[in-house]
Amino acid sequence: MDEQLLQTIVIGLSNGLIYALVALGYTLVYGIIELINFAHGEVFMLGSMLALTLLITFGVTTGTDPLTAIALIVLVLAITMAVTATLNVSIERVAYRPLRHAPRLAPLISAIGMSFVLQNVGLLWKGPANIGFPDVIPNTNILTTVLGLDTSVAITYKHLFAAIVTIPLLIVLTWFVAKTKQGKAMRATAQDPDTAGLMGIDVNRTIAITFIIAGALAGAAGLVQVLYNNTTVWNLGFRFGLNAFTSAVLGGIGNLQGAVLGGIVLGLINAFSDRYLSTQWTNAIVFGVLIAILVFRPTGLLGQQLADRA
């Protein structure tokens, strides 16, 4: 197989896994309360800024001892996920819960407004310029330096890091929703919150836990993004959030596996467009593919047609 093609696939898969982490937050919230949480991208953006700030505060740089760097990165991951989870559930409590029984347009507008609020928080916090960060994770090719292969295809420690953080989180989330008591409560609430409440499920608590999980995933994605791309900026949430939301819709919004599949497909489409066509056409191609899929399969790649609750 052509080595340039293989390299494009590697890049697409790595970016797709980051999209998938963010997309899971969109699809979790929509699956439970049928709300498109437009502020989710900004929670991811603030998570990336917090992760970068903590990495600088803890002195994680290019020359840091590898074991020390790994320990500090794990610590930063835990702190970032905790903070973004708290932020996300606070948004739910303040901006969405009071509007839960209002017409659907009201919480949607509230979500858009919260998105602008968080964008301005990021703008005030770090300013309008892109913030760079040094290569903490080595950008060396594992295939040549470790495995000794003679190839121009590069699978770097950065690609490996994106997979090491993302894939276990996706597996744990899938297990949590499918096998645990709280996961069953989430699925019951998603199907019919009123009936779930009558059966003894605390609907408010279940929705809050959903926002906590979605926020934690956004924080994890923020750290991965910073260490993978070495930069963050106040409008990162809009750009990444748009791609992640498209991933969720592409795979079938409300479906966890669909969000992962949509993220990977979108990452590959972006990578192939950037490599073989032009970056200026990438967004047009992405949304062209999305429109085509929604025309022929309105529920997305893995989505199922469900009756409207209302």
Task: Describe this structure as you would to a colleague.
- The chain has 310 residues and is mainly α.
- It has one domain (20-237).
- It has helices at residues 3-33, 40-57, 66-96, 105-126, 142-145, 157-179, 181-191, 193-198, 203-229, 236-251, 256-276, 279-296; strands spanning 131-132, 231-232.
- The chain has a two-stranded antiparallel ribbon with strand order 1-2.
- α2 (40-57) runs parallel beside α4 (105-126).
- The longest helix has 31 residues, at 3-33.
- The radius of gyration is 20 Å and the shape is globular.
- 45% of the residues are buried.
Domain count: 1
Biggest sheet: strands side by side, in what order? Answer: 1-2
Largest sheet: 2 strands, antiparallel
Number of strands: 2
Gyration radius (Cα, Å) is 20 Å
Number of DSSP helical runs: 12
Shape: globular
The termini sit apart by: 51 Å
Mean pLDDT: 90
Residue share in helices?
Answer: over 70%
Structural class: mainly alpha
Q: What's the helix-strand series?
A: HHHHEHHHHHEHHH
Residue stretches low in confidence (pLDDT < 50, at least 5 long) are none
Strand content: under 5%
